[in-house]
Amino acid sequence: MPLQFELSKTWQCALIGGLVPALFTLVDVLRSASNITFHGLFLGGAVAGYLVKRHGGTGSAAGVRAGLIGGIPALWSLKELLVAIPTIPNPLWFRVVGVGMALAVGVLLLLLPMVVGGLAGRFGGWLAERQGHPRVPATGS
User: Which of 45, 67, 120, 133 minimizes the number of CB atoms within 10 Å of its CB?
Assistant: First the structure.
């Protein structure tokens, strides 16, 4: 029996809006892990919000997901830090605090693109509404 896997319209639009910024982020991380810019993230979130709003979805939800997709490659920059922390000759409590701080930075590296993507998705949804696309999905009739 084959495994059935179907993405919702919100996730489909988020993938469309988030893959290009993810590629730009990946290139930035591979070039220099200390200088990451989220190029195209606002545009990708706006595209995702516009597309999903045309199908009656929520623009900010698609934008947040596009931001998540676009920001995931930034976590690769934490690899060197997490590998270096145990090798530094410090007390155990200092290493634990270092790992905790690195994880907090990782959370911030995901939250920032998600917030930007959410705002951009809301903007893209607003653009779709201005073009005459529905606010809510049509029901009945």
Answer: 133
Picking from 60, 40, 31, the residue whose alpha carbon sits closest to that of residue 48 is 60
Tell me what pLDDT residue 50 has.
Answer: 93
> What is the pTM for the complete model shown?
0.82
Identify the residue whose tokens are 């676009």.
Answer: 70
What average pLDDT does this structure show over 5-32? Answer: 87
* Token pair of 42 as six digits: 């606002």
* Beta-carbon contacts of residue 88 (< 8 Å; ≥ 6 apart): 95, 98
Cα–Cα nearest to 51, from 9, 6, 7: 9
